[in-house]
Specification:
Elements (H helix, E strand, L loop, with lengths): L4 H9 L4 H8 L3 H10 L14 H8 L1 E2 L5 E2 L6 E3 L5 E3 H10 L8 E2 L12 E2 L1 H15 L4
Antiparallel strand pairs: 1-2, 3-4, 5-6
């Protein structure tokens, strides 16, 4: 029995390759392509799917026993789908504070390469802390 157009379309929409559909449904590639073209189903682009920034961040950070998230890679970058990149620290800052950082984003905890969203600071935050310390301890701080 020949597979229905709906069966072919379902596998195409799920991202399966023509060769896989041929074997699964025991039908020819020409029929599969005909159904795909008639229903205007885009061709499957093989290869890995791009990870979201959140997925990259979670996969690449390493949690430490003392509560930090360390970015172990020297590049410190998350790849955007458009081919550009954003630093892991800037991404963590935007996740925590819901605004773009001003100036450099650095770990306020003092742990090198820490990108824990609660530990990163931008320039205005560091300046405010310096002002507070100066008010408490005087200009020697």
């Amino acid at each position: 029995m020949s597979p229905t157009d709906d069966q072919i379309a379902g596998l195409l929409r799920a991202g399966h390759a023509v060769a896989h559909i041929e074997k699964t449904l025991h039908t020819g590639g020409a029929r599969i392509r005909q159904v795909r073209d008639r229903l205007r189903i885009p061709t499957n682009r093989p290869g890995p799917k791009a990870e979201s920034l959140d997925e990259q961040f979670r996969r690449r950070t390493i949690a430490t026993d003392d509560g930090h998230l360390v970015w172990p890679h020297a590049d410190g970058q998350l790849k955007l789908r458009e081919g550009a990149s954003v630093s892991a620290a800037r991404y963590a800052f935007q996740q925590r504070y819901r605004r773009p950082p001003v100036g450099s984003v650095l770990p306020g905890c003092g742990t090198p390469r820490c990108v824990h969203p609660d530990h990163v600071e931008d320039r205005p935050m560091r300046e405010a802390l310096e002002t507070q310390l100066a008010q408490i301890f005087g200009s020697a701080a």
